[in-house]
Every structure is written in C-alpha cells, then in structure tokens.
Design brief:
heterodimer, A: about 475 residues, 2 strands, B: about 230 residues, alpha/beta, Rossmann fold, 2 domains, six-stranded mixed beta sheet, 9 helices, globular
C-alpha cells in the first residue's frame, strides 16, 4: 500500500513539474558550489606547491653559496648562510603546510580565513604563528558558496517547499475526506508522501554532489576519502531527515498550507540564520577577545623593549652559560649578536605570554560556549560535521597548529644549540635541516565526531517525527 | 448495517448531536432532513470516524467505528457534497487509485471502465482529466468508487445540492440501483423531493435531535413538506 501511495505521490509531484524544478535548482547550485570549492582547493594546493618550490630553490642557492664561500670563490656576505643564526632565522626557514584533503572542495569551512601554511624560523612563536579568532557560528552567515552552504541553507528550503502542504493540500482540494474513507491510516499516507519527497531530494543532492566531485576530478583514492565521503553522505541525509521531522511535526497541527509555509520558514530562519549569529554575538559579547591590533602592538612593544635591553640580556645569558664566553674576540663578537638575538626572542616570548594567554583563554571560553550551545541549532551541528569530514574544521586546524608548534620548538632548539656551540653550517648540513611533514589526526577520531553529529541529527529528526506521527491521530479531518 | 446508539457529540459544551438512535438496514435508503446545523453532517462524520463521539457509539456491520477504524472503512463508501478528485489525473486513474486504496488493486482496465459505464459516464470521459469534469460527473465518479469498492454502506452528505434536475435525477436513480443491490444508504439532504423519491425512510433532525422518522411509502410529497415545516417551527 505504501508503494502504491508513493507511486501516486510521485505522479502528483511530476504533474506539478516539482522534480524538474528541484533537479534544476540542485544541479545549478551544487554544480556552482563544487566548482567554487575546487577553485579554492586548487588555489591552496598551488600556493603550497609554490612555497615549497621557492624553499627548494632557496636551499639550492644557499648550499651553492656555502660551497663558494668555503672554497674561497666568494667572500662571506653579512647574511652568511654558514651562520646558524642567519640560517635558522632569515635565510633557511622552512614552510609548514597543511595540504587540503580531497574533499575540502565540498566544504571550504574556515579554510579561507585560517592560515594553511606557516614559515617556521627561530623567531618567537608569536611572529611565526598567531592563532586566529574562531568565528565558528559567524561563518554560517558569511561563508563561501560551497556545497555545504547549499546543504545547510538551500536543502532545508527545498524540503520545506516540497512538503509544507503535505496534507493541507489534500484537505484544501477536498481529497483528504475521500482518502480517509478508505481503510488506510493517515500515517501511511504521510509516510508515503514523505518517503517520496525524502528520496527525491536526498538522492538528488547526493547524486549531484558525487557527479560534481567526479566531473571536477577530485581524487578519491587517498586512504579514508571514501569513508569520509560515505559519512558525509550520511550527515547530509540525517540533516535532511531532521528537516523532514520538522515538517512532519508542523503538518500534524493541521493548519492551512499558508500557515505551514510561514511557520516552517520561521523555523528555518531561527535555526539556520538567527540562532548561529545570535550565538556568535553572545559569545563575542560574553568573552571578548583582545583585539588583534592590541596583540600585534604588544609583540612590537615587547620586541622594542627586549632589543633595548639587548646588552643586559646578553650579560644575563652569559651569566647563565659561562661555558660560551671563551674564544677569540671576533668570534665572540659574531656570537654575541646571535646570542643576543636568541635571548631577545626568548624575552619577547616571555613578555607577550600574558597577552597571548588572555587571548587563548578567551578563545577557549568562546569555543566552550559554542560547544555547549551548538546543539541548539542542527545547522551548526551539520556544518561542523561537514567541515570536519572535509578536513576544513577547527579540530584539524588545531591539530595542524599543535604540530607546527612542536616543529617550531624543535627548530629553535636545534639552531640555538648550533649557535651556542659556534657551529657553522656546511652544504651537507643544509640537507639535514628537518622538513615539516603534516600528519593528519587519526581518521577514527574524525569519523567518531561526525558520527555523533549524524546520530544527533537523526535522533532529533526521529523524535520530532515521532511526536508528529503521534499527533496525527488527532488530525482535524472535518470541522 | 449502519447503527447509532445514543450517539452524542458535543463541541466545547455545544451539543451538535444528542443521543441519536438510528439503524439503517441493508437495502434501505435513509434520508436525514433538517436545517443547517441540525447535526446531519456530524452524524455522517461520526460514522466515518472523522470526529470522535462524546458518548454513545456508531457501528458499521456490527463493528464500532472508533474501536475498528480501518476494518469498518472496508464496508464503507463516502460521497461528500463535492466529490473532489485529483485534477491532474483522468477519471480512470482516479478510480484506479481509490480502488487500490480500498484494497482492490487487481481490477483490469476493462472492469474499471465497466464501473464508469454503470454510473452512466461515457468511456471517453474516463480518459479525460478530472479538472474539466462537471460536478455531476464527479459525483458519478464518487458512485463508481463506491461500486468498485463493493461497499456495503454508503454515506452521502448533500450529494445532489447544486446539481441540475437531470443530473440529480440520474444520481438518485443510481442510489436506487445501489439499494436494490443491498447497500445501506444514509444520506443527509435538503432536497425533500429527492428524499421522498429515492428514500425508503426519512428522519427529521432539529438541534442535534432526531425528532421524527417516517416511511416514505406512507407519504405524499405534500405531506412530507408539511410535516417537515411543522417541525421547523419552534
């Protein structure tokens, strides 16, 4: 019976040309969105490639210089590539990049706001790496037009447009009475109607997304990509399921088509637009982050003060490390400069620490609040999960920053020890300067987080749907 | 076949139907007469289980419509004041869908066209979209749906209002045929003439009460009108 109803419903939708309209809308928007996403990721890939090329060329040049100086063909310039302070600071920094995942094109997330590569040198942590403000809910308002935008915003509107008059149309055109004089429960009709619409929009969204990926030439062979894509599809379906639950609940009140359309549009506006931006405003008002300008100014002031204190710092440094005092005067003078620099960088880090800590604490508080209240809006839950799976979420970025921090610490330790030991770099030693290799967080963690989001969306949809089905028993057929 | 026992419906303290006791046997055509708001439509909606009774019960073929809402609908066909069908489908497609819902998905095309023939609709009309049907044609499709369902009881709510005399006459003739075939018919109507013509019994309702029940064979047209008007005076 369900199949018979679904078949009839399908014909009715076709008679109104609804599937064609939905297909055309989705084809156009998903096509454009995937294209937009691919544009961005290929730009990222190209930028990283350019940076690494530049680094490789720079290293070749530096090694040639070192060889030339060592063989006496060239006089050592001021920026002597053999000196560890020059190499580690100005000449030979390496890039630490987080390449986009293949699916990043589906959900750009914050990847267009947050840095995806850093230039790691012996400079202080703050000049190498300053974390950006988390605008988690905010970007729901101003994101790029990517596939996740289509899914978060347009997809529910399509669902609402297709089903706001699920039963009210039958009531208004007078067919409901005739339907319900047949031995078929109202819930079966509703199930058939929703089933057809859900199949239509969910299948079309998934189909067009996958077509976009295929046509756009996204490489799905890297490990885990297909699993991510599968969970991605699941989250999309669950988000759709949530909206069908909302529709079912609205339907069960037995109001007119116009009232249903209006109330569903209001719910959409609240959950997708108002709530995320309110959350963002509330978060910013409750835990304001010190302005970036203040932070940069603090770094400047600290660096000026530390530089002014250079000699005192050097004396203090030698006081701490008396073993480095020995040596010829020239050598000592050269080393003094390097060690002063090292000491100044330590001092800057020390002085800026309170500002950075305040900044980090406020960000952590903001994130904490967002984490607590994000459950209020399925749009935020779905968006976060989609970003997470696409590798453009906050978790992957934080993971990247942690790895870069570790790389930066090692880098500084390595060059500091070369400086104090008065080592000089040979061409061969350049080859030993470590590269940054980005290693993703384990796939399991991502899948678990997205899986929880999927279940939350599905659960919310089921609860709303169950309440709706239960209320249908009191659906006002007559009067 | 149709049986109401102390059937009562109150809406927010207003009594729409007050302790109705009524029984319509197979082959009978019972016409409910009365002013607007007398409780005729409420009675029909109670039999359809579209509204729940406050007290009392409505039974179809011995089954309580509240306790067995789906089972009782297997015996039941309903023709509202306006039979509304799917405008984008042809008459035949509408009949096919409603028959399938009624549990008869197995009819052949010829059998379905046969029902159209039985209710006096031309075969070419069956292939046209319902959107262009006149009201008379749609009411006839309603009968065809009842025929295809092989309903044992037929509930009609002012089915001939707004029909021209010829169409109303044809419609009444179909009711007579159905009752001859053993269908119990309960019809709410304002048309005293039709009630006398095709009804076997008439009941006069006022303020939710059945105030009189008459056998049409005992009455002339003039008698029925006089009795009806007498009851309508307060």
């Amino acid at each position: 019976m369900l199949r018979r109803i679904a078949r009839h419903e399908w014909r009715m939708l076709f008679a109104e040309h609804a599937p064609w309209v939905v297909a055309a809308l989705l084809a156009a928007s998903t096509g454009y969105a995937v294209l937009n996403g691919l544009n961005w990721t290929s730009f990222q890939v190209a930028t990283i490639e350019k940076a690494l090329d530049e680094e490789a060329e720079r290293y070749i040049g530096l090694k040639q210089q070192v060889t030339a100086i060592e063989s006496g063909q060239m006089r050592a310039p001021f920026a002597d590539p053999r000196m560890p302070d020059m190499a580690g600071g100005r000449l030979a920094p390496r890039y630490a990049a987080m390449p986009p995942l293949p699916l990043a094109a589906l959900s750009i997330g914050q990847s267009d706001v947050l840095p995806y590569y850093f230039k790691v040198s012996t400079a202080s942590r703050e000049s190498v790496l300053t974390t950006n403000e988390i605008e988690n809910p905010h970007r729901l308002l101003h994101g790029r037009f990517d596939l996740s935008f289509v899914i978060i915003y347009l997809f529910p509107l399509l669902i609402i447009g297709l089903s706001y008059n699920l039963l009210s149309l039958e009531k208004e055109q007078g067919t409901l009475a005739l339907l319900l004089s047949q031995p078929v429960p109202l819930s079966t009709y509703v199930a058939g109607k929703i089933g057809v619409r859900a199949a239509l929009v969910v299948l079309l969204v998934v189909m067009f997304s996958i077509t976009g990926i295929a046509v756009g030439g996204v490489d799905v062979t890297p490990g885990g990509t297909l699993l991510r894509l599968a969970v991605w599809t699941g989250v999309v379906a669950a988000y759709g399921g949530f909206w069908f639950g909302v529709v079912l609940l609205a339907t069960s009140f037995g109001r007119s088509s116009a009232t249903n359309a209006l109330s569903l549009a209001t719910v959409w506006l609240l959950l997708v637009v108002v709530l995320p931006s309110t959350l963002n405003t509330a978060v910013a008002a409750l835990y304001p982050v010190p302005s970036r300008v203040d932070m940069i100014a603090a770094v400047r002031v600290a660096s000026d003060q530390a530089s002014a204190k250079g000699n005192t710092l050097l004396a203090k440094y030698y006081g701490d490390h008396p073993e480095f005092v020995a040596g010829s005067d020239i050598e000592k003078a050269i080393n003094d400069v390097a060690i002063t620099r090292l000491a100044i960088d330590d001092e800057i880090e020390e002085r800026v620490r309170p500002v950075v800590d305040r900044y980090d604490t406020q960000l952590a508080r903001q994130q904490g609040l967002v984490d607590r209240f994000r459950l209020l809006s399925p749009a935020i839950v779905a968006q976060d999960a989609l970003n997470d799976l696409a590798g453009t979420g906050s978790a992957r970025f934080a993971h990247f920053v942690r790895r870069v921090e570790a790389f930066h610490r090692d880098w500084r330790a390595r060059f500091a020890s070369m400086i104090v030991q008065k080592q000089r770099l040979s061409a061969a030693m350049y080859d030993d300067i470590p590269h940054f290799t980005y290693q993703d967080e384990p796939l399991g963690a991502v899948v678990v987080r997205a899986g929880v989001a999927l279940l939350l969306l599905l659960g919310a949809g089921l609860v709303l749907g169950a309440i709706g089905i239960n209320r249908l028993r009191r659906y006002p057929i007559a009067g | 076949m149709l049986e109401a026992t102390n059937l009562t419906k109150r809406y927010n303290g207003v009594t729409a139907l007050d302790a109705l006791n009524l029984s319509v046997a197979a082959g009978e055509v019972f016409c409910l007469l009365g002013a607007n708001g007398a409780g005729k439509t409420t009675t029909i909606n109670l039999f359809l289980n579209f509204v729940a009774p406050t007290t009392g019960s409505a039974r179809i073929n011995g089954l309580d419509v509240v306790e067995q809402p789906l089972e009782t609908k297997k015996y039941l066909a309903y023709i509202p004041e306006m039979v509304m069908l799917y405008r984008n489908l042809t008459g035949l497609e509408n009949l096919e869908y409603f028959s399938a819902l009624a549990g008869r998905p197995d009819y052949t095309r010829e059998q379905l066209l046969g029902f159209f023939n039985d209710v006096g609709l031309a075969a070419d009309a069956a292939h046209r979209r319902v959107g262009i049907y006149s009201k008379g044609m749609r009411q006839k499709v309603g009968i065809a749906i009842a025929l295809a369902k092989n309903a044992k009881a037929l509930l009609l709510d002012e089915p001939t209002s707004g029909l021209d005399p010829k169409a109303a006459n044809e419609f009444s003739a179909l009711l007579t045929t159905l009752s001859a075939a053993g269908v119990a018919v309960l019809m709410a109507t304002h048309d005293l003439f039709r009630a006398k013509e095709s009804g076997t019994r008439v009941g006069i309702m006022k303020h939710g009460k059945l105030v009189a029940t008459l056998n049409t064979s005992d009455l002339g047209h003039a008698d029925l009108e006089r009795i009806y008007l007498e009851h309508m005076h307060d």
